[in-house]
Design the sequence.
């Protein structure tokens, strides 16, 4: 991605002729996910040459700025460890239910607390000590568990028995003999070294130190990286760091003196590793592993931390390790440039590495930082500079000189060599007055640190010239502001404006006239000033806005709006336009956005094919807000006839039935054919009874029964009825047949 | 010879009288069935008249009522045809059998009607 940006930058520079400003203030933020620093745009951005692209092309502007920034040499400021790190440590390393999830995590937390000077809580200590003692006394722990337990023990100083330690020593020595991979060596040697520090009368010395060194060295590669084991071709810089730490441990534990040539080759290996160091533009150096290795570590932070650990422990065992001091300073800058990391592992790497760099024997980096990089001319701020070690401790006696002040846009500046005056109470170097000619604007101040004691030059890394971006702000005077309506070249009406105060204009113009606005801008030193933003905005009553840039020549800013040419741009909308003037800059303390009043514009009517003004944004509360409530209307019940009518017809319907009965009587209906003898009579009665039962069942069905019950009952009655009916009717049939034949 | 001067009204009256005298000779059971048919039809007509006055809601009840009357009338007519001794087609069908069919069909019709009544 960086190379793509570079290509784009080159193209843009050729085409647009963008001048690289040396004062673009960049700071890097640390992306915890990818463990890399990402360019971060801070608030002071120069883009007046890009305003022509329009306000809406924000994306384009950001891309161009990033492109422009990547080819400029960046200046950055690094702050030593501060209170924010302490509070972050307390937050990130909070143990769950009083204990940490593993001894490795416990060590990370405790080490960070120790370096930052945070008190450990006693209950955590008890819990962790219990886990430590368990791990040390258990027979199933391998050298890795023992190593982590011993590390925690070194910090907490738990009560361990001498027998336990002696038992562990023999196990670790066996582990060293049987080791085949780098991690085995690392854990075993590390464990033995820790026991040596924790207990006095134990024998941890290694007999075959030369042999062990050679077998570890066999894992090295020609490019400076190391492999984890002889059958695994994967190599990484992280492994190189572990290897150096292990090698220094072997040297310390050697029973007899080691061959000097061997140590010399190891030193050469370290120097070779530094050939693969990478650099950011702000002067920080780091190591990066391009791929994930065996232990799952990835990214520059863990790799650089491992190398720093290995390097400093190796340097502590032997003198004269030849690493250039700007690289050490660069490594310190890398860790400081992270700021405050977001997760506990990153914070541990940062703090642990910085504590190793703080008192290492190669060279101790000194950090120059400014508590405030924004100085105000109005409140007569003094320039203050602080020099300290990476962990914030006091630096050796030195003096800070301000060598050069570069103003924005220029690469050369006069050499000043002003010495800053040291205030021992606050441990700050101060300049009582800013150099001559420092007006408002963006500058790069170049400082140089000079150590008082020439012996310290070898011990400390100061980094030569340190460039720091500084902003000087002040109040910009706005004079002689006036607005006029011009007819041709004749001034129709002119009004004076009070900027940046309140104004309430009420102008009117038609499309043949022009609007002219002018004012002067001067810095506190009386020089002309060009702000980032000098914009005039006209807003129609319907919400359509038009923005114009106010051009300048030196001190004099003016803009003329010729309405004849702007009629189409304004979409032929006549009516009242609100005028707003914006003048703003990062170094201007009195930036303002002032409504000036309104102008009544009379434009001709829009022709047929004129473009419509863009639709205004709908108020989201109207579109997405709650709508009117709908009340459900239930179906109105049908109109029923009045009850009297229904009852009347009920009666009327029964009339034919009565007529039927009367008719039957008139016809002389009789029951003579009813069987008289017992059995047929019974059957006949049952038959009629069955029919009556069915009819009754139907009435019940209508009233309350359901179809299934009815059908079931009907089935039963029906079967009965069929049987009975058959008997009755066959009896009647035989009776009539007998009558016929007789 | 004076018959050509008889009016249409006299013809209708004469026709009516002859029908009446012929009808009186039908057997009683057929007359009962005729009476039943008339009763059913009149009931249906009264239901239609009610619907005409108050509207057809609920329509299923109206249909159910009318169709029960019409259905039972139709079944009675079928019974009359089958029971009529002068009908040569149904000479071998015993009238009790026809009556049993009539009862069964009526029961089924009225089950459906009661279901549809609602």
Sequence:
């Amino acid at each position: 991605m960086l190379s793509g940006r570079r290509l784009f930058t080159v193209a843009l520079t050729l085409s647009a002729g963008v001048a690289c400003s040396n004062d673009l203030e960049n700071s890097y933020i640390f992306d915890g996910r990818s463990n890399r620093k990402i360019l971060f745009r801070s608030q002071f951005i120069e883009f007046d040459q890009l305003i022509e692209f329009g306000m809406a092309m924000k994306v384009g502007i950001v891309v161009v700025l990033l492109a422009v920034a990547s080819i400029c040499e960046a200046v950055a400021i690094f702050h030593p460890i501060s209170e924010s790190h302490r509070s972050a440590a307390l937050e990130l390393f909070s143990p769950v239910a009083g204990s940490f999830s593993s001894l490795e995590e416990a060590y990370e937390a405790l080490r960070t607390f120790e370096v930052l000077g945070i008190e450990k809580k006693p209950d955590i200590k008890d819990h962790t000590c219990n886990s430590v003692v368990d791990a040390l006394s258990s027979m199933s722990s391998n050298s890795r568990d023992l190593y982590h337990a011993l590390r925690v023990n070194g910090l907490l100083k738990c009560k361990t028995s001498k027998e336990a330690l002696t038992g562990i020593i023999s196990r670790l020595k066996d582990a060293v003999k049987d080791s085949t991979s780098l991690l085995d060596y690392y854990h075993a040697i590390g464990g033995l070294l820790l026991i040596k520090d924790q207990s006095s009368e134990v024998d941890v010395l290694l007999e075959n130190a030369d042999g062990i060194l050679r077998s570890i060295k066999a894992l090295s590669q020609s490019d400076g990286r190391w492999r984890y084991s002889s059958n695994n071709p994967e190599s990484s810089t992280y492994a190189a760091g572990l290897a150096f730490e292990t090698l220094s441990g072997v040297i310390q534990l050697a029973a007899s003196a080691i061959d000097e040539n061997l140590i010399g080759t190891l030193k050469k290996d370290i120097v070779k590793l530094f050939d693969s160091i990478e650099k950011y533009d702000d002067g920080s150096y780091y190591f990066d592993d391009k791929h994930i290795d065996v232990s799952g570590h990835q990214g520059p932070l863990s790799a650089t931390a491992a190398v720093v650990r290995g390097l400093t422990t190796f340097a502590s065992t032997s003198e004269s390790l030849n690493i250039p001091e700007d690289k050490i300073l660069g490594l310190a800058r890398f860790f400081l440039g992270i700021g405050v990391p977001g997760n506990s592992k990153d914070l541990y790497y940062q703090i642990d590495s910085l504590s190793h760099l703080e008192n290492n024997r190669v060279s101790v980096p000194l950090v120059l930082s400014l508590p405030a990089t924004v100085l105000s001319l109005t409140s007569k701020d003094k320039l203050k500079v602080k020099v300290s070690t990476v962990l914030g401790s006091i630096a050796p006696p030195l003096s800070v000189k301000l060598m050069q002040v570069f103003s924005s846009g220029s690469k050369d500046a006069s050499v000043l060599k002003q010495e800053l005056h040291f205030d021992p109470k606050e441990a700050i170097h101060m300049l009582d007055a800013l150099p001559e000619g420092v007006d408002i604007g963006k500058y790069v101040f170049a400082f140089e640190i000079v150590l008082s004691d020439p012996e310290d030059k070898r011990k400390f890394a100061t980094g030569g010239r340190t460039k720091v971006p500084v902003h000087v702000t002040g109040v910009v005077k706005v004079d002689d502001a006036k607005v006029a309506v011009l007819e041709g070249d004749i001034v129709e009406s002119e009004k004076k404006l009070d900027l940046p105060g309140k104004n309430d204009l009420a102008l009117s113009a038609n499309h043949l006239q022009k609007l002219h606005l002018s004012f002067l801008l001067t810095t506190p030193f009386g020089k002309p000033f060009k702000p980032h933003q000098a914009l005039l905005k006209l807003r129609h009553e319907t919400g359509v806005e038009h923005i114009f840039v106010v051009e300048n020549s030196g001190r004099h800013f003016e803009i003329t709006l010729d309405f004849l040419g702007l009629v189409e741009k304004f979409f032929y909308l006549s009516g009242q336009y609100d005028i707003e003037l914006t003048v703003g800059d990062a170094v201007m303390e009195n930036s303002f956005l002032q409504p000036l009043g309104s102008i009544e514009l009379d434009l001709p009517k829009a022709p047929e094919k004129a473009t419509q003004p863009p639709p205004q944004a709908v108020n989201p509360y109207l579109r997405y807000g709650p709508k009117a409530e709908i009340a459900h209307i239930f179906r109105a019940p049908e109109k029923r006839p009045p009850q009297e009518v229904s009852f009347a017809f009920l009666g009327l319907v029964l009339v034919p039935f009565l007529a039927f009965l009367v008719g039957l009587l008139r016809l002389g209906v009789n029951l003579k054919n009813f069987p008289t003898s017992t059995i047929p009579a019974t059957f006949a009665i049952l038959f009629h009874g069955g029919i009556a039962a069915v009819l009754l069942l139907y009435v019940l069905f209508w009233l309350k029964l359901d179809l299934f019950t009815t059908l079931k009952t009907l089935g039963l009655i029906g079967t009965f009825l069929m049987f009975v009916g058959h008997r009755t009717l066959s009896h009647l049939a035989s009776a009539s047949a007998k009558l016929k034949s007789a | 010879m004076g018959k050509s001067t008889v009016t249409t009204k006299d013809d209708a009256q004469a026709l009516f009288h002859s029908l009446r005298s012929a009808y009186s000779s039908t057997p009683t059971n057929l007359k009962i069935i005729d009476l039943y048919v008339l009763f059913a039809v009149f009931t249906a007509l009264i239901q239609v008249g009610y619907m005409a006055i108050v509207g057809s809601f609920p329509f299923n009840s109206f249909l159910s009522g009318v169709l029960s009357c019409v259905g039972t009338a139709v079944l009675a007519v079928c019974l009359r045809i089958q029971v009529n001794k002068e009908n040569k087609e149904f000479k071998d069908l015993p009238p009790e059998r026809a009556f049993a069919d009539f009862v069964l069909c009526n029961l089924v019709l009225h089950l459906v009607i009661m279901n549809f009544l609602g």
